[in-house]
Amino acid sequence: MKHAASAVVATANNPGFTPQEARDFYPDGITMREARERYFQRAGFSAASYVDPWLFVPFAGRVVRLPNLKARRDAVRVHDLNHVIGGFGTDWLGEAMIGGFELGMGAGQYWIAWMLDATALSVGLVRAPGAVIKSFARGRAARASTFAVIPDVTAPEYEAILDSTVGEFRARIGAPDHADVTVADVLKLAGYTVGGWCVVPLIMGIALGTAIHGVVSPPVAEA
User: Fold this and answer.
1) How many domains does the chain have?
2) Dmax of the chain from CA atoms?
3) pLDDT, tens digit, for every residue of 96-123?
4) Using 50, 70 and 90 to split pLDDT, how confident is the model at 4?
5) What is the C-alpha to C-alpha distance for residues 119 and 115, in angstroms, rounded to an integer?
6) Among 95, 179, 185, 201, which residue has the fewest nearby CB atoms (within 10 Å)?
7) Which one, of 36, 62, 1, lies nearest residue 223 by Cα?
8) What pTM does this model have?
């Protein structure tokens, strides 16, 4: 799908990697900044998502324009780094899996990440429960939460992390390739799913409101 250079599209149809494929595509020796550029190029995104005031979301064959809140713009700066270290795709499955991963490790003070992750999780558990549950277990088993390590994306520490190597950051977060799923994991996921179901109507209401006010873009153009 193609849009104006300044536009931001919420998802792209790029599948994820296995842990080994992720290490091959994002090798330990490059910087996180370089790895993020590789992620952008593969997904068709850009750093515009960090400054653009609007978020363009495919919906029912069209593209709905939603406000790209500052809270979301901050959270996505961290979220994108999790795409790198976890090897998650940007298709619906990848976003559901990273939603589980981030909920497992905890999204800290990034309240919008909790909401959006729970929403993606609630969809993913219906369509691919096994993959999402395993991703949650990986996040829960991580040594540290990326969101806790980066509590403020405007601080110098964030730029320092981008200049560190992928290997250094992977070691700091310490997320395993695989983790055993426990009963507690399943119960927590059930709670997050209920939360996601509560958030979905809110997001749909915002989308409907923007559509009524004439901010729906033309039909999605194929690449």
Assistant:
1) 1
2) 49
3) 999 999 999 999 999 999 989 998 888 8
4) very low
5) 6
6) 201
7) 1
8) 0.86
